[in-house]
Amino acid sequence: MTKQLVWRAIFFPILFVTPMFSGTILVPADQPTIQAGIDAATSGDTVLVAPGTYKENINFRGKSIKVESSNGSKETVMDGKQAGPVVKFSSGENSKSVLIGFTITNGRGNKASNYSGGGIYCKNSSPTIRNNLITGNVAAVGGGIEVFGGSPRILSNRIMNNRPDPSIDGGWGGGIDLENGSSAVVIGNQVSHNLWNGNAGCNCGSGGGIALYNAGSPFLENNVISSNQANFGPGGAIWSVNSTPLIVQNLVFANTAQFGGGVYLDSQSTTSSAIFVNNTFADNVGNGVGLPGDGSAVYVVGYDNEVAFFNNIFASSAGRESFFCAPARVLPALTDNDGFDSLGNGFGGDCANTAGTNGNIATDPQFIAPSHRNFQLESTSPAINVGDNAAPDQPLKDLRGKPRFVGGTIDMGAYEFQ
After folding, report:
1. Tell me: the pLDDT tens digits for 82-123?
2. E strands in 80-132
3. How many CA atoms lie within 13 A of 38 on its CB side?
4. How far is 300 from 263, CA to CA, in rounded Å?
5. Domain boundaries in the chain?
6. CB proximity list for 333: less than 8 A, separation 6 or greater
7. 127-151 pLDDT, tens per residue?
């Protein structure tokens, strides 16, 4: 009896406490490579990586672990050696599978990833990807990040200077591609200077910044999407086809495409729709292969189901229309938006008569310093206190983190005048 009581007193406390602990595996102190650290890790562990350049292609292998740099992306580089995607999530990873604080570079989509996802390839998985620099990668689809199914959280990354695979024509999604029903959450990222090429005569270089292709219901908020190009194709910043995105309070500027320099939206599918709330579009260009193209800010076609724009600013100086609607059975719903082109028309196509209805205007929004990329509003801006307070999914803070609804009525665009 005494031995039994002693055994119970010792055993049960150990059995209860042990699952609460998780370990930290140091690379290269404990394991020589990042992949070796992942292979040695168990659920809840952290693989903590010291500064340096690691020439490897890693796979999370379905593990709920954190792979993190100790000193951030400036000092810690994963170089994929053009041997495939630098990072793979393809075994059902969840939000507890976390990648944080690396430069992800020199990756290439290969046959195993369907030539997609040069930097990060995510298939039917939902990891957390945070605070990384994803740059200098190539692929046919999704140069920076490819998401094929799943709902990853893509947070506060810089996704820059990714390119198409020169050996493959066409493709889409220079910075990020979301497809196959993905409902990714994309918040607080900088997506810039990504280039996507096609061939003259085909719309096959689409979505220089972000592509949404049969993407389910992704959520994009508080991103800055700038200076991306879709050559010989539509959608310099965002290309959305048969998807149902919610796009809230993003700054989209200086992107270029054949048409739809900011956004090309095609929702002809009976299951797709789109909602845009409090975004600012500025200085985007539709170049039309040497000629001004339609929809420097936004080009919309299709919209069999609900497509709605609330409290957005569409501003340009491209000499065409800023917001263009192609012929369609049902026009998009536009409420309290400002469409303006200093050299052309604010609204065009089947939406040409939008200004003066439902609170929509076609007036210079008066940015503080657009030549210096300051798209906050001057005190005399006509976009102040004229938004729709009943618009869906309104943020409580603007893109700078300042309060919304100053003066009682929300302003148009991504910034609230303080």
Report:
1. 999 999 999 999 999 999 999 999 999 999 998 999 999 999
2. 87-89, 98-100, 103-105, 120-123, 128-130
3. 21
4. 8
5. 102-377
6. 306, 307, 308, 309, 358
7. 999 999 999 999 999 999 999 999 9
